[in-house]
Structures are given as structure tokens and as C-alpha cells.
Amino acid sequence: xxxxxxxxxxxxxxxxxxxxxxxxxxxxxxxxxxxxxxxxxxxxxxxxxxxxxxxxxxxxxxxxxxxxxxxxxxxxxxxxxxxxxxxxxxxxxxxxxxxxxxxxxxxxxxxxxxxxxxxxxxxxxxxxxxxxxxxxxxxxxxxxxxxxxxxxx
Length: 153
Description:
mainly alpha; two-stranded antiparallel ribbon; 4 helices; elongated; single chain
């Protein structure tokens, strides 16, 4: 727990490295690949694209650019989850993914800033929960010690 507060940057660097490696393994919105599923959910949910922005997919070796989507063939510059979507993951603007721009997509908004905030928040919550558990255990030890030393039933 103390490590989290004394060296948070190491945790963020590790998380970013994992996120970057996962991004490089992204295939497509319809893939059963774990990394593809994760990014296909994260990007529309957080309204972002890639880690820094959509250009992260320029050198993504596994990204499948030629896809069939809504009965149309596309040669994608960015993944379909970079399009703006509603809560049910339906693309809001019919021009996307044919054309990606600032109005119909999130290609200029990276996910890392938002993911870092989420990791920081939940990391702090985990530390607090851990401290509560430790305090509860200390109270149990103190209570047990009092009972054993006083001879209370």
C-alpha cells in the first residue's frame, strides 16, 4: 500500500505499457481477441480513440483495415469504436466510419488521460479498503488479547 503512494508513477508506467501492448494487438470491433474486445468497449465508453489519439493505430500491426460494417465494405483509417456511439454502441453519425472527423468521431481524444484518472481513483480506493481491513484485523487482535488476558468468558 505504501508503494502505491510512494511510487505511483511506476504503476502508471506499467499500466501504460500494458495498455500500449494491448492496443498493438487490436484487430477489429468484431474480433474475439481479448484486446480487441477491451478497446471496443473502452473507446466508445470513454469517448476516446487510441492512447494518445487515433494516430496510434497508424502503426498497429494487427489492425484490420478492410472490414464489412452495416453491409458496406470499408478501408478504415481508424477502428470503428473511434466513431461517436450511443450507450448501446450504435454509431451516431452515418458518415462514420466512411469518414472520420472531429464531429463524428473521437480521433483527436486519446484514452490514456481518462484511463490514468480511473486507475488513480480505483487504486486509491483499493488502498483505502486495504487499510480498513488492516484496522479491522488490529481491532480483532486487540479484542482477543483483552479477552485472553482478563479471563473474560
